[in-house]
Amino acid sequence: MNRFFVQKSLQIAAVLFMFVALGARAEGADPYQVVDKVTDQLVSAAQEHNKGGDQASFDAQVMAALEPVVAFDYIARVVMGNYYGKATDEQKRAFADKFQSGLVTTYAKGIATYADSNIQLLPAPEPVGDSRRVTVEQQVSHEGSTHKLSYTMGKNRDDQWKLINVVLNGVNLGRSFSSQFEQLANKYNGDIDQVISHWNSSEG
């Protein structure tokens, strides 16, 4: 997949990804209520940052917000595919850490880029009820273009909503990352350490 497209995809997805992440801590809230409640708050925060805020501080805020509610370890495991079973515990942790760090950095840039976008939450097709996996859909209108995002939210054993995948304009980012890992593994003859060393979450 084109590197520029994936990088832009991540930046666009970052905005709404963060909306879900910060709000998912709200006790008793379903994914739709969560997104609706925090959208205005996060747009305001990003706009303030764009006025001259410290980047390192902003990145730290993004990390603190995402870490409790995004299933980074689960996503990293899916991305590694068959290589997960071959990896040592140390390699699994190293990849998960690098995967998380790269995404958070990209997301922080995305939030700043799309802070002035028009963001709309699409109506839920049916009540969340007792569902343990829900797709939340939104649209981002920015500079004449409209992007459709679908967020797969899963409820874990502790009844916490965790974001586990994003589909942007029909492109499944989880599958894109899995393909990237496979390509690197083939390039380096299955050497997982080399894959981790050369991993970049903004590429595809």
Q: Could you characterize what this model shows?
A:
This protein has helices spanning 3-23, 31-49, 55-66, 72-80, 83-86, 89-113, 173-187, 192-198; strands at residues 118-121, 133-142, 145-155, 161-168, 171-172. A 5-stranded antiparallel beta sheet has the order 1-2-3-4-5. The protein is α+β, with helices and mostly antiparallel strands and 204 residues long. The longest helix is centred in the middle third of the chain and has 25 residues, at 89-113. Helix content is 55%, strand content 17%. The protein has one domain: Nuclear Transport Factor 2, Chain: A (Roll).
- Tally of domains: 1
CATH architecture assignment name: Roll
What is the H/E order? HHHHHHEEEEEHH
Coarse structural class = alpha+beta
CATH superfamily caption: Tgt2/MlaC
Given this structure, which CATH class is correct?
Answer: Alpha Beta
Task: For the structure shown, list the relevant keywords.
Nuclear Transport Factor 2, Chain: A; single chain; 8 helices; about 200 residues; alpha+beta
List the helices and strands and how they pair.
Blueprint: H1 3-23, H2 31-49, H3 55-66, H4 72-80, H5 83-86, H6 89-113, E1 118-121, E2 133-142, E3 145-155, E4 161-168, E5 171-172, H7 173-187, H8 192-198
Antiparallel strand pairs: 1-2, 2-3, 3-4, 4-5
